[in-house]
Amino acid sequence: MKNEIFENETLLLAALKLDSHEAFLQIFRKYYPDLVLFASRFILDSETCEDIVQEAFIKIWANRKILEIRTSLRTYLISLVQHLALNEIKHRKVRTLYQDTYHEMILALPADEHIFYTELNDAMQKLLSQLEPEVLETYSLSRTHHLKYSEIAQKLNISVRTVEARVSKAVKFLQKNLKGYKFIIYLTLLFHHLSN
Amino acid sequence: MDYYDNNHIDILISRYLAGDATSPEIEELFNWIQSDDDNRKYFLRQQDIWSVLNPAVDISDINTADAERKIMRETGIIPRRRSVFRKLFGFWSRIAALILLPLLAVVAYLLIDRPQHTLDNVTITTAFGSLSSTDLPDGTTVWLNANSSLTYSPAMDGDERNVFLQGEAYFKVKADARHPFNVHTPYMTVTATGTEFNVNAYDSIASVTLVNGHVDVGIKDRSLALKPGEHLSMTDGRPVICKLTDTEKYCCWKKGMLIFEDESLVSICNRLRQMYDVEFDIAPELRNRTFRMILNGENINEVTRFFEMSAPVICESLTPKEGNDTTNLKQRYRIIPL
Q: Among B337, B336, B298, B299, which residue's Cα sits nearest to residue B318?
């Protein structure tokens, strides 16, 4: 699986060097939304985030002939957007999410370790689709629609204990299968949220 | 490191990320982070996941197709519009002429019979530290706050009444249900038929306060309805609506007053920055200190003296820096602890 992706990417980058519009578009469509979300970690204004990511792609097209990607395309794009976002913060003094120290900390995580929203979301959706329909429904009502246990129980005409059991089943299942994503915090938060 | 043995730290991290941690908890967490490089990495990973699952921007708000069109034009992959037009023109010119000629004749006929409305738009502008009020041609009364401008067409006889606002204004709209009154700002459009409301559109911290009646606020492609006493503000790029017990706080500027009730120094200075031509450098430890004050037309020097009188702070005026940067010649104040 990993090999296949790598091969695709090599081809993709080779095609890009040969001025392939399709290759450029494929990269753009695949990464644009995730990169905008990534930029929004540093910059609050969503329009500026989109501008930054568009600037990154314009740079990539302009430099396609001399582009040399030593890591992966994904890591390269993240680093480029991070760099442009930092520049923007420095030069234009845009409103940022965090104070400086916090900033340095978040930036200290190497670009190849960042996770993209769609990647995590896809992985979660895949796992969720393996759950029994009633467990999935209960879980979505609690997590996506933010209903309280009592509200879900009323809505589905089941007991609060059944709701608890189902949500806990879904959560345990995700926790077990999403280990690679160090998922624990999200789940801790989920419990925290529900107990309120 | 076994992640499942770190229950206590996980709870600390989650409380911190959710913004619920107390200061001793934050201190404990930061000590833990700094004590070990692995701890630091663990924290960063969790923070990464947290920000992925709680994105500041809604993924459905990102319009990849629009961005794609823009990118394709900017990179020159898609030729600019003009050359496309030229190509099409050669092809379709005869057909176009056949359709256009009679159309032009009709348009010409219609135009000749009518007085032409070529009146220029009117713009009212207020300077820093001043305010004005004016009646629009339709009978609507507008109060314009400092450093603001309002543009409108003097005829105002279309299906809709449109004005363009930069800065802040209070509108008392003349009731006319058939001709909606639209206030266009860089961040949102407010639509009313006959109501009183305040629109603040100085910068991205834009807001709308409805005093009475009903308005619809359009942000991008969404429309939100406000009830009397409700206040809509943009927080982190998203609209947040809250119910106010008293709208006066947001509207009293039109009487030359500013009311701050236990507001942080940062938000007070933001407000002052909008209305006076000044910038503030605030010491980090003072940013969230709250103040309660009512200003009644004082000048900026008097305002800064109020700060000094009501808290142990020094408010010093910095002389504008000389140099190439001509945009930065504003009066600057530095607020530091005494």
A: B336
